[in-house]
Amino acid sequence: MKTIISYVGSLKEYFIYSFLVIISLIMVFQNDNVQIRFMRAAAVSVIGLVQSSFSVIPNVFQLERENRNLREDNNSLAIELSQLKEAKLENLRLTKMLEFKERTKYPMVSAKILGKTLIQTRNTITLNTGENDGIKVGMPVITEKGLIGKIIATSSSYSIAQIIFNKDLKISAKVQRSRVDGIIAWEGETNLLLKNVSKSADILEGDVLITSEYSNSFPAGIPIGYVTSLGTIDNLFKKVLIKPFVNFETLEEVFVLKNLSNEERQNLEKKFLGK
Amino acid sequence: MQEYIKYSIVLLILVIVQKSLMWLIAITDYQITPDIVLIGLVYIGIKKGKITGSVGGFIFGMLFDILSFSFLGLMALSKTTAGFAAGFFNNENKIERYLNTYIFVLIVFLCSIFNNIIYFALYFQGTSLLFQDIVLKYVIPTALYTAFFGIIPIILTRKKIIGR
After folding, report:
1. Closest CB to B26 among A12, A24, A62
2. What is each CA distance from A47 to A40, A58, A84, B22, B147, in whole angstroms?
3. What ranges do the domains of chain B cover?
4. pLDDT tens digits, one per residue of A68-99
5. Does the model's pTM come out above 0.95?
6. Which residues in chain B are contacts of A39 at CB distance < 8 A?
7. Contact by Cβ (8 Å): B125, B83
8. Complex ipTM over 0.95
9. CB contact under 8 A, A61 and B26
10. Taking CB atoms and an 8 Å limit, are B77 and A13 in contact across chains?
């Protein structure tokens, strides 16, 4: 009997452990009684108090995660904002262009500029419209602000236009107010030059220049620019500098006028000059 | 008796700290925190044996359960087992060695594995998590993180701040 008691005594640790495990298991399966709720309420108050006292201390790892997420959000929002700004600006431009298209009598095709050169002597722009859209060589290119140039080459989907800042392009123009005629050309400077203007011609600074009906390439009345300065070349001619209405550096969309010069008139003039 | 009161106060403080502050150093997407109550329990288990370890585990595990809003008795069960397991290292001749060296970290890791397997396996009962997922995402990371914190009592013991 003594041996049994002694043996059982040596196992008391296991009995206690088993007893505690059984109690724990019973509790696991019988949760949420009233006494426990009351104790929980009191305990939660204590924990809450301690937690609120230390709530100013940030969790470094959580902050890092939050920071990373915020940076990602920030990036995507910045991209979205930039796209929205871009869309808004495009919308404004297109609205102006649409208004212009509606009040113009010529049939026209809108085109987006895919590329441009502005630092050479023969500057051009590349457009995303071509023969498939009815574009032909010689068609004028304009915007709602004024003249851009004319088409000089086409493919099925693209076309290239020489712009007024191109040494090869000469434009018959006239002063809108006084109807004085001249030839607009570009000689490599920042402004255009109105040539063949006699010293006595009635031209003032600020006068607007438009395409002339003498032009074989452009319909009459398209605004080109305005007079910025007046000088003299020699005893016979004035030096008239013109600033175009269009800012070529920020230009993105244009219209191609489906208006070719009168072939009969061209042939007659060629024939006459040939003689 | 005075010694047991001292241990009880320490464990009580550890429970409060565990519940209120440990979330500050939670890591991984699964919010793993070190179990400092277990570290204290293992220390007491090694020092005082299986009965103290398991009873201490039961009482303070139960207290922990009360403070939590999960299964009542679950932490008591796991901590009882962990404290009991720690008691196996209660060897009169080796206590100092166990508590003063990095063997203590290994014992904490082992007891933490027992504790975590019981706790998380029951806690995630009825969810879609597989047992191997529970082990890889919760059991082992928590045991490693807890073992890392097991260095603290060694340092404190060596500097004779505790264990006198």
Report:
1. A62
2. 10, 17, 48, 12, 25
3. 2-15+27-158
4. 888 888 888 888 888 888 888 888 888 887 87
5. no
6. 66
7. no
8. no
9. yes
10. no
